[in-house]
Specification:
Elements: H1 2-41, H2 44-52, H3 56-83, H4 92-108, H5 113-123, H6 130-157, H7 164-189, H8 191-202, H9 210-223, H10 230-257, H11 264-277, H12 289-301, H13 306-335, H14 339-354
Helix pairs in contact: 1-12, 2-13, 3-4, 3-6, 3-10, 3-13, 4-5, 4-13, 5-6, 5-14, 6-7, 6-9, 6-11, 7-8, 8-9, 10-11, 10-13, 11-12, 12-13
Length: 355
């Protein structure tokens, strides 16, 4: 009897583990394929030549824009967390260090477990909770995606080499993103009505667990509480725009560092392609898919030299790894955590969510 219960409980977890393994190896193969494609279509000698002629002093400036990006992201995340608290607030230093720990772990662990680690760590900082951390990170990702999708058509309009059909598709996509943002805002302000509508729809989809999806929707809408106030919503939109500006400037500086003749509009276009490319399955840290997406955007779409395009992709990714790694290690020391304790807590939360 007890053995039967144990088997029934463990079976979904075993299936989840099997699916995770499949997903992991698919990501590894995609990353290897992307890296192989770069070196098949671009001669390694061209990449090495571009690296030799790189102005590395400019990469220092590019690295500083990444640090500024992280500083601003922590400000935005803290704003969302504190907006979800009825009493008290979380200190900026805690949010900044925990954010960097999470990003560092995302670069070295599969399945974006760094995000789960962020939720666990912020949940250990009263009065914040793990559920609030998870919901704010979902909202954070949604706003980032909406910003990229809305920005994309404006950058496409500035790229003369693209055919009109692609520009039209990009414009329609941007309008749909704006519509989605308005729907989310309306759902946040009418949460109970939104849940009832979702329940009515989910009850008619037999292969979905209504309770599970309603819980996820409720978590999301709680995270969107910041949108229930016009002032708070405008603040979050403003912070999202400000957050991404240093990255666009950093891409421009980095592309100039490898002697690519470009401008801020083209740099913003590459940022959009890079952000969209890393949504594909890949190894930890989006190795391969990032390089392929950025190289394709610069060389094939913008028509700039292939060797320099690939050198920018590899160098920019390397700078990200180094800066985030350093800040993540600093975060570990400042919060008094250890790698082992963070990973163990993360695994415990993942198990609890899959049971």
């Amino acid at each position: 009897m007890d053995y039967a219960i144990v088997v029934i409980i463990r079976q979904p977890m075993q299936q989840t583990a099997a699916n995770k393994r499949i997903q992991f190896w698919i990501g590894i193969l995609v990353s290897i394929g992307c890296l192989a494609a770069i070196f098949v279509f671009i001669k390694p000698a061209e990449i090495l030549a571009a690296l030799k002629n790189t102005r590395y002093e400019l990469w220092t400036m590019a690295a500083l824009t990444l640090v500024l990006f992280l500083v601003l992201r922590a400000i935005r995340w803290r704003y969302m967390i504190n907006s979800g608290l009825e009493n008290g607030n979380v200190a900026y230093s805690s949010v900044f260090h925990i954010q960097n720990i999470g990003y560092m772990l995302t670069n070295i662990l599969p399945f974006r477990l760094g995000d789960v680690a962020r939720a666990v760590l912020i949940g250990n900082v009263p009065p914040a909770t793990i559920s609030l951390g998870l919901s704010t990170m979902v909202v954070e990702r949604i706003f980032d995606l909406l910003f990229i999708v809305i920005l994309f058509p404006f950058t496409v309009a500035g790229v003369e080499r693209l055919p009109p059909e692609i520009k039209t598709v990009a414009m329609v996509t941007g309008l749909l993103a704006i519509l989605a943002a308005l729907v989310m805002g309306g759902a946040a302000n009418k949460r109970q009505s939104a849940i009832k509508v979702a329940e009515f729809i989910l009850n008619r989809i037999p292969f979905l667990d209504t309770k599970t999806w309603l819980r996820r929707l409720d978590d999301l809408l709680r995270g969107l509480d910041v949108l229930t106030s016009f002032r708070s919503a405008m603040t979050l939109i403003f912070l999202t725009i400000v957050v991404w500006l240093p990255i666009i400037v950093g891409y421009y500086i980095g592309m100039r560092a490898v002697n690519l003749e470009t401008n801020l509009v083209e740099a913003a276009f590459v940022v959009c392609i890079a952000a969209l490319s890393i949504t594909a399955p890949s190894s930890p840290g989006q190795v391969g898919v990032y390089e392929a997406g950025v190289t394709f955007a610069i060389a094939s779409i913008l028509g700039l030299p292939e060797g320099q395009a690939a050198s920018f992709a590899f160098l920019n990714h390397a700078v990200n790894y180094v800066i985030i790694g350093i800040l993540g290690i600093i975060g570990i020391t400042r919060t008094g955590e250890t790698f082992g304790s963070v990973i163990q807590s993360t695994r415990s939360l993942v198990r609890s969510r899959t049971e």
